[in-house]
Specification:
The chain is mainly alpha-helical and about 190 residues long. The protein has one domain (about 30-185): Up-down Bundle (Four Helix Bundle (Hemerythrin (Met), subunit A)), CATH 1.20.120. Helix content is about 55%, strand content about 5%. It contains seven helices and four strands, in the order E-E-H-H-H-H-H-H-E-E-H. Strand 3 and strand 4 form a beta hairpin. The protein is globular. It starts with 15 loop residues before the first strand and ends with a helix.
Length: about 190
């Protein structure tokens, strides 16, 4: 794959944000398609959508179609943790010059935090809270703060900015809500 192109297996069709081609071939999310003010609104809306799904039957939420595919509940826990991690990363990026971030160890968290055993009603409250906490950090950012550089390690280490990170966080919510909906239909 050409240098400078986002190398996540989700991306394919052309769209540009910060000079990079980034449209998810699986969910259709396009980086840069939402204005900054809309990104925050959408993240909060998706937090509420995840919470609504957590009101479904617990057996459906815990259903795994295959051993290596997360359940709807596990996807919701993952997005909750992404939102919390991104909030911390946002504040670090606003204080430090071009910080880099350790990975969140998303696969390990599934077992370490026992995602599958968590109470979906608590996860619903937590994901709404996590979305609001992250969005609170985005509100009121200046144009310079949106452009603050950071080194982001996924899918490969590359310099990005706070705006890209906000779009990436929204993509996580959009993409994984689609995963949750597929899981619930398959259960």
């Amino acid at each position: 794959m050409e240098r400078g192109r986002f190398r996540c297996h989700h991306f394919g069709a052309p769209a540009r944000h910060n000079g990079m081609v980034m449209t998810c071939s699986q969910c259709g999310f396009t980086y840069g398609a939402h204005p900054r003010t809309e990104v925050a609104v959408e993240i909060e809306r998706y937090g509420t959508e995840f919470a609504r799904r957590m009101g479904r039957d617990t057996h459906l939420l815990r259903f795994r179609p295959a051993a290596d595919v997360w359940s709807a509940l596990e996807y919701a826990c993952h997005v909750r943790d992404v939102l919390l991690m991104q909030r911390d990363r946002l504040y670090v990026a606003l204080v430090e010059d071009t910080p880099s971030f350790k990975p969140m160890y998303r696969e390990e968290r599934v077992s370490f935090d026992r995602y599958q055993d968590q109470d979906p009603s608590y996860v619903a409250v937590q994901i709404v809270m996590a979305a609001r906490l992250f969005v609170n950090g985005l509100h009121g950012l200046s144009a310079l703060q949106w452009r603050r550089p950071l080194m982001y390690g996924y899918p490969e280490p590359q310099q990005r900015d706070v705006e890209w990170m906000a779009h990436h966080t929204l993509h996580e919510a959009v993409h994984h809500l689609g995963d949750v909906d597929r899981q619930l239909k398959a259960a």
